[in-house]
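Entry type: protein chain
Record version: 2
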Amino acid sequence: MKPLQTLSLLAIALVVTGSAVGQETAHANENSGVHHASARSGPLVVKWTMTKIKGSANLTINEDGTWLFSGNTKDKMPDHDINIAIALKSSLGGTIVFHFSGNDSDGVQWSKQGKSDILRDDFKSFANKVDWAGEWRTSLNSAGEAKRYEEREKRKEKLRKEEEAAKQKHEEKVAEQKKKQREKIEQEEIARAQEAAQKQNSGGGSDIGSEISGVASTVGSVVSTIGSVGQAIAGLF
């Protein structure tokens, strides 16, 4: 991930943590709570076994700054994406976040690795005493949104026909009820279209904006869990 993208995501994450997490449509989620780890000798190892789904996330950080973030989920969530993040808070208060995003229709398996000068230079502050927390969230992807749109259109058409039938039978109250139900669906569509437009303007495209929003809300929430909101985030990987 490019530095500019990283900074943008971090900025969004902090905003989301403070105001928009509750507005994010999360179809499923899990937060590990705060745990503690240390590396008296050898690498720092974090292992998170998820409980709401069959899955795990593993993180290994070596003294030379090399790291490996891997894991898998077995549960299949058709038409959904999943965002997974683990945040580490060092004894000095700095926070490092590792994350993964992917299509969860058939479960996911990932393995990300790299090398960080920050982790190498500050390894002792992270290894001697570190708090960590993990979180995953799911949300509808583009395929899921398309299916939801089709279902709404079918529902609207059904209500329109029921409204016309009620009018023909001079059942005015029933016709008015069907009309209000149809108008409510239309209002919800307008609200979703406006939200999508805002994401497109801020993220450079609806799919990209949605992906950034999903990552940012997950990252922001897990960082908030370990109490680092308002403090400097050392890195996002």
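Comment: The two ends are 8 Å apart (CA to CA).
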